[in-house]
User: Fold these one by one.
Assistant:
Number 1:
Amino acid sequence: MTAIFLILAVFTVAGTAAAMGLRNAVHCVLALTVGFAGVAALYLQLDAQFVGLTQIMVYVGAVAILAVFAIMMTHSPTPVPMPAYSKRWALGGVVAAAVFAVLAWAICSSSAPSRTLPPQPDISVQQIGDALMHRYVLPLEIMGLLLTAALIGAVVIAMDRKEGIK
Amino acid sequence: MSSLQSYLLLSALLFSIGLAGALTRRNAILVLIGIELMLNAANLNFIAFWRFGPTPSKLTGIMFVIFSISVAAAEAAVGLGIILAAYRHSRTTDLDKMNSLKG
């Protein structure tokens, strides 16, 4: 465990915890981008450069912007602001803490994590492209179909029919 | 403490933070973000196991994560679309008030 890992882990956990804890929803999304960028840096630390850059493009670039747009479109100025947490927030916190306890116990008592780090793999983007075009071409096509269907479906669901927009 | 163990613990912590957010927040958009965080924790696990596995040159972990990120992006788009449609119907994103199917 190196100092770089510790710094990145602190950044990631602080960003995500702030994203789930702050009261203002826009602040939450801003903190969330810090957490996503921290996860991307962890991918780079694990020699998965392509995945790290994909993470930055998809999550920091697209999902966070989408969430900001959704928050702004659903923002209604009310005299009494909506409470940030649900009525049974303590129960949810206990469930999450219990899940973490079970996971941490399983990780700490397992023998799998004792393996050593293999030599650094030499992964180029060309190899990933080759794999996507040969071995994984069917999943790639299915993924393209799924993304098309999902995005068309999202537009159809979010479309305002009353104003006659087609 | 080995390095893989620290990555797994970090991933478990991220998952629990996302779960806590999904269970406790009232804003539907933030609940969706909590689910995205849980997916991110799973992706971090994939990459950690791939890197520490016996044959990292086989690209399996990377492929898993690429497809998982695509599914997560589709899920985010559809989820936010559904939230927008529900907001237009009930004028709120407060999950404690969106409690009837018939409206």
Number 2:
Amino acid sequence: MTLIHFFLTHRMEIAESTGEHLWLVAISMLLAIAAGVPLGIAVTRKPWLSKPILGTANVAETIPSLALFGFLLPVPWLGARADRLAIAALAVYALLPIIRNTVAGIHGVDASVREAAVAMGMTGRQILFRVELPLSLPVLLAGIRIAAVWTIGIATIAAAVGAGGLGEFIFRGLAMVDNRVILAGAIPAALLALVADIGLGLLERQLRHARQ
Amino acid sequence: MEHGDDSPVIEFRDVQFRRGENVILKKLSLAVRAGETLVLLGRSGSGKTTALKLVNRLLEPDAGKVLVENRATTEWDPIRLRRRIGYVIQDTGLFPHFTIENNVGLIPELEKWPEARRTERVAEMLRIVGLEPSQFAKRYPHELSGGQKQRAGVARGLAGDPPILLMDEPFGALDPLTRAEIQKKFLAIQQKLRKTIIFVTHDIREALLFGARIALLEAGELAGVYTPQDFLRATEPIAAAYVATLQKPVSGYFRRSEA
């Protein structure tokens, strides 16, 4: 049976796993953005927060993914369901690039623009929402793009704790010593990462153009 | 108005400002009267920009007081204070993601002017600085030349109709011809609107052109306050050194071998 034939006969399964995979990635990315952007803003407002927040995110990043899934297993509510556990772990990985780029984006706003905003009597909120965040959007988006590509890759390991996704094929293929099965997980995962990278990259470029 | 004719709109009283060990301003005392343009003239590092930023409370004095309309800046609500003070800087600080119209109309918008009045005000301000609204209102700052951006910056500073205007070398980055053009335009605006203006520059010609009075700053200290006429006749070494740069004959600009 050729690879193409294998893909065709298992297309429903592959599609289902791809859907699961996307769902894991999407939810964890949303959580990471919801937490990461405010944390990044906090760092720019209170510089003393920089070390604890970025430090923690940095350390979390260095934990091998399989180990992180293991560590989270005994956590009461999280460990109860495999998908919860996987989403939490993936969100932790996505956090660092998002926080870091939020900080970089806001710090990158032209000093004279910020000074003018303050001097015109804009409030801190107005400066954040009308000047700093819109101007840092391309950099923030670059962080989201990095996080999305990582998360799509790491999500294949979620299958190890039974959370499903394209990793199912990879682990099964490893056990069966069948490359076709491994590729049935690896190829769609690689394509997803590629599409996310290119799509978000285009969006980022458009934003940069619109605002330069 | 809450102040009488003689009472200054802006007053520095024994103002000191330090940055770490460096004393940027030493015991500065200076008053700016209603409707006058006071030029702060000095070389880089003389403290003139610092003095300007003390007025709209971008900075606060370490000692002494800066009074705006008879109230210390530290006693003002900073937002209220800044909305009464137009601010025009060399880098313009135009928001790159706002159209010129939205840049100029920002303070009226923050002040919740009705839309019709806002639109009208923006068009009026653009015309006053010599930017045709139909041509420029919808453009973004990056689509403008340096001189046009600077005009838009002046229009933005004036849009909220603030009684006070602070200008920090607003025309310093322009080429000489564009600068002369925009200076002429601003001179007309100045005479028409009669705002209280503090104008920071290192350019003696610009100081003589705009200043009702010229306050000369040197290393954080006030070296004297002059009318333009007095300044030209001044015998004090610092003022005289500035005046001397004016009298350089054209041949002085050539190297000896070429002259």
